[in-house]
Specification:
homodimer; DNA-binding; mainly alpha; three-stranded antiparallel β-sheet
DNA sequence: CAAATGTTTCAGTTTATACTGAACGATCAG
DNA sequence: CTGATCGTTCAGTATAAACTGAAACATTTG
């Protein structure tokens, strides 16, 4: 049972580069590295192993595992006759990225739209016609995007289906 | 001509909250605040004003303006008989977000796909069937997404058109 | 060409964020 | 009940990113 650095060098490269990318995805470095570790590991892993393999503290590992579980991209599992917590990656890839997408919409998109609508309703732009117009255009664009995203992310099955549909029709346009 | 804090409080609220969101969009705080300032301003503004209004240094303002210009979301303009550089927001809202989307795909998505393909071609997962399978599934999902995104972002006009199309067909599915 | 004005660069500093590890709480076995 | 094991929390610290401001650079004008 490996619990030192990763067996394959390709795998450890993956963990590291996925880690740097993570920042752009709304995860921090440790969360992204941990997630990557789970992506390239078959067996359930426990907290201590995660900390040891990735050279991070148990505290940090604990917090990241919790957060990844909140995102729903890893799951807690148990081995019979062993009270330790083990974790595995969510097995369904679509589910994983569906959840990441939902989370990102909630964090990045929705507040922006809300913000925009707030500004339009509160602000007085009677002496700034260009601004007024631009904000209205933005609101329209964001509303459209919102409709589309909401439809794609309404539920997992719908999203999966829509994705297939899109693949077929879009390239032709 | 205002060059102190923003005239409208709604506008200044907008600038600040857009600023905190910016981080999630791949911009830093100052870039996002500056961008927001341009969004709610009709008149061309020059570097000095930006620095003064937002209480940031000229150096920082200069770097952010440069970067925003690289992203293509603001433009440099000139007033006749005045050699100072003025800047305005890109007037077309779709163009603005199209460019942000292109940039984000390039930064966030493409490296992830590349990474994944690299791992699949280099790594040996003969003793990790689950991992092998999961990575292949991920590659397929990312490839599909890539096709769709590429089609949406092929060029501005196509994207605009596709967005309208999507809005009409998706909600029904 | 010198002076004036506007712009960019970058070393040093500040600030924000992530991370550590010791202390605590919970759960279980004996 | 007691000791042992495991998980979590959080105050303090380390790290990374952003920002400042002064100096260098560029451009225009007289």
């Amino acid at each position: 049972m490996s619990s030192g650095p990763l067996t394959s060098s390709a795998a450890s490269q993956f963990v590291e580069s996925w880690g740097s990318l993570g920042v752009l995805w709304g995860l921090n470095r440790s969360m992204a590295r941990i997630h990557a570790l789970f992506l390239v590991t078959d067996e359930p892993i426990e907290l201590d192993q995660v900390a040891r393999i990735l050279n991070i503290s148990r505290g940090n590992a604990s917090m990241c595992l919790k957060e990844l579980r909140n995102w729903g991209v890893i799951q807690r599992v148990h081995k019979t006759g062993d009270r330790q917590d083990y974790y595995v990656a969510e097995p369904d890839v679509w589910t994983t990225f569906y959840r990441i997408a939902v989370e990102r919409k909630k964090r990045e998109f929705d507040p922006a739209l809300h913000n925009l609508r707030h500004l339009l309703s509160e602000g007085d732009f009677s002496d700034s016609p260009k601004t007024q117009q631009r904000l209205e255009d933005m609101e329209e664009l964001f509303s459209t995007a919102n409709t589309i995203l909401a439809s794609l992310l309404a539920n997992e099955a719908a999203g999966r289906k829509a994705l297939g549909l899109l693949k077929r029709i879009l390239p032709k346009s």
